[in-house]
Amino acid sequence: MTTSPPRPAGDGRSDGERYDQGMRVRREVLSDSHVDRAIAGTTPSTADFQDLITRYAWGEIWTRPGLDRRSRSIAVLSSMIALGHEEEFEMHVHAALRNGLTPDEIVEVILQSAIYAGVPAANTAFRLARPILDQARDFD
């Protein structure tokens, strides 16, 4: 099994470069319209949080070479189901489709999660994902 070498803390990228790379990935994964809404809703109280998630979640973690975006989406969907983060789960179902997962693969992720995160969590995930997946299948 190969592993991604860890990035040293001083990997040569500035905070500005991490932010720019994070914003690019964030837009590619979540869509311009989603990110534009999030940015438009930024307040002085949430500005630091928006900067944090753009630089760290998207610019540091989502840009790592160890997993492709499909695999990252599977991990995120599983985590959102297990933790009951319904709004984030719906957003990441859309993102998973953008990252190349098929509706049938997303169903498999939810089924797998039923065993490890619980049937009630998977039941909620199916309820939330159904309209998104139905719409995606209509475009196939």
Question: Can you put this structure into words, describing what you see?
Answer:
With 140 residues, this protein is an all-alpha fold. It folds into two domains: 14-64, no CATH class; 66-140, AhpD-like. It is built from seven helices and no strands. The N and C termini lie far apart (35 Å). The relative contact order is 0.11. GO terms for molecular function: 3-oxoadipate enol-lactonase activity; 4-carboxymuconolactone decarboxylase activity; peroxiredoxin activity. This is 3-oxoadipate enol-lactonase/4-carboxymuconolactone decarboxylase. Its EC number is 3.1.1.24, 4.1.1.44. Residues 48-130 form the Carboxymuconolactone decarboxylase-like domain.
Keyword list:
single chain; 7 helices; 0% strand; 2 domains
